[in-house]
Amino acid sequence: MNTEALQKISKFGLYQKRIAFILLLAALVGTPLLFGSVFIMYLPSHRCYVPQLDDNATDSNVDFERVDDEATLSLYLPIEISSDGVKRWSECYRYNYTSQPSFNSSSPKAANQSLVYCDKGWKYNKPDAVTSATTEFNLVCDQSLVRPLFPALQMSGFMVGSLLGGILSDRYGRRKAMLFSMTSLAASILWVGLAQSVLALQIGIFVFGISIIMRAVTSFVLLNEVVCGDRRRTFGILFSVFCAV
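RESULT FIELD:
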């Protein structure tokens, strides 16, 4: 856009105000997911799922954080020392019982039992309504290294999108690049919400990173082209505020 022509027509008329307002609203799209990785990757305290204990409806409410349940859980779970020196129930191993242990003196001692990996899954100490990618896909123990890959993929998407956004906006125009980034951003958010596997979630996070940085780059440039003069500084700050809301 010719800046001199814009100044002659109107420095900041109704048209420019409407476009600037729409661009500021566009900055709100996708921001919750951008800063919501701490909730998506939420890791509650957890232990092995013990069939002898958790398959029983009367015992399924045993809470491994309660002192009253320590005697019961000690028959199934070993105690380990965390990195900060705190004792806790093992998160990745359980005792290999083939039958239901009892509390009488003739029952096998837990210390004499071999350990087995959490082959039956995990039980998380959380409300039933609270879920995350970690609890849904069991990204714990040997799969715990998968969790840091999600922010890394998002940052990789930022790198690709920052380069791709400039190329597309110069080649096809700001408006087309803006519409493309908004469409792909909405699609990636829907994809992340409906992902049924870790790979699908990783793809969605990567595409989301590309799309949201493309939207940010193109909309910020458009905003500076529409707004002229000293208002650019004000709207540049407002754009950052809307991105952070």
